[in-house]
Input
Amino acid sequence: MIKRSKRTRARGFAPWKPKPETLELVASVRAVLDEYREHLPLTVRQVFYRLVGTQGYDKTEAAYGRLCETVNRARRARLIDFASIRDDGASRYERTAWRDADAFISDMRTEAERFRLDRQDGQAVRLWLLCEAQGMAPMLYRAASAYSVPVLSSGGFDSLTAKHDLARELAGALRRGQRAEVLHVGDHDPSGTHLFSSLAEDVSAMCVELVGKLPTFTRLAVTVEQIEAFNLPTAPPKATDRRAFEGDTVQAEALPPDVLSGIVREAIEARRDRATLEQVLAAEAGHRTALTEMLGGRDG
Output
């Protein structure tokens, strides 16, 4: 039997009787989640910026903290679906196992029906998409996966190992005769711009050592033009941050999910040769059919 200690914070699924103004905030959050249901799960910060931009919600750390606490309680009270909100931090390591051999074959049939070739094969330029905010990576992956463009969270690129791994991937494409380009989504602030520039310099230097060629790094978002075009909420840089930077700051989460996904798809499409992609898709369909027939298709 679990002995409950006297705590003020909720534990488990917890009943909740919030004040009317808090219920209004919950309703606003649910409206944002419904508006962007095709892009779920969202991070709380993405919801925060939609409330700031569309409902005049206070753009302060205190208001953000209140929103985090409200969303936490609403999820525990089952007023907000757990799957609609993404909050990272936990990692899981587990080897795949099956109930029996029939279950394994069934899974292989499912995989055969989803079989894909590398859709970047044959393209003049091979692309990677880096996102500063880890929580936004799954949403961007949905936009990029149709083109086999990998999405990486660049927030962890203080890691020398991560930089070296990326440099080896870029060098591999350069060695095979493709150009290599990294598209980057990050905050428009001293930290975001310096992370981008230092990452580009460090990885590029490694590529030169590895293969004697340079990759390309492109700042996809957030740009000054996007701040103006979408009237994104801004804030002055922190007074304690002495790094060179001009203008106000904007977080990547301030871009509406559909807008950011569209920016990603448009950038990838602009760099794809459609005829080459169609050839890969046709070959992929043929392999998929052959594999499905080989495994016997779905049980009737």
User: Anything to note?
Assistant: The mean pLDDT is 92. Strands lie at 125-131, 151-153, 179-185, 216-221. The first helix runs from residue 20 to 35. The radius of gyration is 23 Å.
